[in-house]
Write a sequence for this structure.
């Protein structure tokens, strides 16, 4: 039928006459762009988890400081 490294997969449903064909992009290191490689490295594995936690902590503090400053100026006595 098709070789395993082929990006096209074909499957036929048993209970109907409808066919399904899906085309997947072949991912290899030399074909991936620089941004995709960096994204893949920073978003997966232990480094990805650490980056997400760090991003969450930074986002928390940014929102906290913005809220504090906004609250200070809104509720400041005249």
């Amino acid at each position: 039928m098709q070789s395993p490294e082929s990006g096209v997969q074909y499957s036929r449903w048993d209970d109907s006459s409808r066919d399904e064909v899906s085309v997947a992009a072949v991912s290899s290191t030399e074909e991936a762009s620089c941004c995709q490689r960096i994204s893949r490295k920073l978003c997966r594995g232990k480094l990805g988890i650490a980056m997400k936690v760090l991003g969450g902590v930074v986002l928390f503090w940014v929102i906290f400081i913005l809220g504090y400053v906004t609250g200070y100026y809104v509720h400041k006595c005249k």
